[in-house]
Amino acid sequence: MTQRISKTAIFLLAFLVYFSSCKKDEIAPNTNPITTVDPPVNPPVEPLKFIPPSTQRDGDPIAGFDYLVYGDYLDSGAPYDLYLNFAGAGSNKLNRTGDNAAIKYTHTAVTAPNGVRVVTSNCLVCHSQKINGNVVIGLGNAVEDYTQNQAGTVTLVDQTIQALYGPNSPEWDAYEPYSRGLKAVADHVVTDVKGVSPADKLAVTLSSYINKHDLTWLGQSQLPIPKEVIPADVPAWWLLKKKNAMFSTGVGRGDFARVMIASNGLTVSDSTKAREIDNNFDDVLAYIYSLEAPKYPNEIEESRIAPGQELFNSKCATCHGTYGQDESYPNLLVSLDEVGTDPLLTRSNFSYSFFVDWYNSSWFSKGKNAAYLKAESGYMAPPLDGIWATAPYFHNGSVPTLDDVLNSTSRPEKWKRSYGTAASDYDNEKVGWKYTVETVSGSNIVYDSTLPGYGNQGHTYGDDLTVEERKDLIEYLKTL
Predict the structure, then answer these.
(1) Which residues of 264-282 are buried (b: 16+ CB within 10 A; e: fewer)?
(2) Mean pLDDT of all residues belonging to the chain
(3) 51, 214, 335, 366: which could join 244 in a potential S-S bond, CB 3.0 to 4.6 Å?
């Protein structure tokens, strides 16, 4: 068995790292036109609109971390021995015990419903990243590569597992739901540029295959799936404790733990499993609420902090809140007309009327811990705790540094970064990732802000600052 697995392990590569591949191959971007099949739900909003709070469940943060890194919220995947034969034992960055000690921290060994031990993805694929060489849990992952369509590779993995274990084997039965989910979404979640996330489109696509009442798998799509893949930047988890709505568009309302369990859609079996996950995600939410932003690791010019704070409080605090002993966060949705940033994320994905209707009449919207979607024309002005670590900026990751955020005239139309996460890849002066300005796109490692949904326009509030004022403000932002 070991020798045969070694010969075919290459077929498993894309499966095991489907949500964590870091290819740097230059490929032509997806140039499909925007073809929205259903008007989005986007009623006009006032320039600044308060988002009211919702009651959230209490939980145990220790139990939440345990469930996050050991839990079977995804319960289908590759056979454990096949994973180890391919990947080998790695470093135990989460200090996990048992067979998870040998698993990459973005994956988890769980027991499938039929008793087979498998390896599957966990939430840290999207919600952790290295910076300065250290893994930061809760930091949105901005180095992943979703520019490759994995449909063909998943088919090869299918054939490999069937050949090794048999088409009617317990191992195949334990793996098949994951394969089924991946093949359903593969054509619909390919981004143009590395480093942005198609997670919103993933959720929309999966919903079309799921019975909204009992969450059973339907086998074929029941809803329209638009062609466009509008990118998103993954917000940092430690910001959620301050927010009254989830996601950059502020669309996720009600019970946050219920909203988060939609990640189960990739291997969903029925609402019985969903209820089990739901009963654990109040603890996961408590763990997320316990996270604090990482401190800026380098020197800060002390003399600039006070004038920077004064500038911030006069120019930025209305939308982004205040910081320090008397912190406040206003929870404002800023209209598209006001902020002027790329509008396509708030007009797609969670704003499609068919998806809003599906979700708001589904199992997720029922019971005392109901969640719902409320789509409006704007973006949340996020809290800025740990902003130094969250580059690139804006809801689509279109701006590489804080200096560029505060000076719209300096933003590069096309730019490239290393996608490394060491200290040498970080720009301490401009605060963000080092980059080079490019003149030609057509590559998945060149961010092209002229592509639909990738625009870097808007948020021009810092354009009237002097060079010295901008430096003061940046030094203050490093302290948050």
Answers:
(1) bbbbbbebebbebbbebbb
(2) 90
(3) 51
Position of tokens 């590395």? 194
Question: Which residues lie closer than 8 Å to 2 by C-beta, 6 or more apart?
Answer: 85
| pLDDT recorded at residue 38 | 57
Contact 426, 434 (CB under 8 A): yes
pLDDT, average across residues 139-160: 92
DSSP for 391-448, written as a single string: -SBTTTT-B-BHHHHT-GGG--SEEE-----SGGGEETTTTEE--EE-S---STTEEE
Rounded CA-CA distance 174/462 in Å is 53
77 has pLDDT over 60: yes
Helices (H) and strands (E) in the chain, counts: 15, 15
| Least reliable range by pLDDT among 68-77, 82-91, 165-174, 443-452 | 82-91
The candidate with the shortest Cα–Cα distance to 358, out of 277, 429, 262, 270, is 262
452, exposed or middle or buried, with CB in 10 Å at 0-12, 13-18, 19+? middle
pLDDT at site 335 = 96
> Which tokens go with 17?
């790292």
Beta bridge partners of 129: 136
- Reported as half-sphere exposure (CB side, CA atoms, 13 A), residue 27 has a value of 16
Residue among 184, 173, 209 at smallest CA distance from 78: 173
Residue-wise pLDDT for 394-415, tens only, equals 999 999 999 999 999 999 999 9
Instruction: Please tell me the distance from the alpha carbon of residue 89 to that of residue 305, in angstroms, as a whole number.
Output: 46
Measured in degrees and rounded to the nearest 5, phi and psi for residue 266 equal: -65, -35
- Here the tokens at position 363 are 């199992």
Residue 428 class from Cβ within 10 Å (0-12 exposed, 13-18 middle, 19+ buried)? middle
d(CA 108, CA 123): 10
The secondary structure element, H or E, covering residue 258 is: helix 256-260
Chain Cα centroid distance, residue 479 = 25
Alpha-carbon span 174 to 117, nearest angstrom: 8
- Helices 199-207 and 353-360: angle between axes, nearest 10 degrees: 70
What does the pLDDT look like over 265-284, one tens digit per residue? 888 888 999 999 999 999 99
pTM: 0.91
Residue 185 near residue 217 (C-beta atoms within 8 A): no
Residue 232 DSSP code:
B
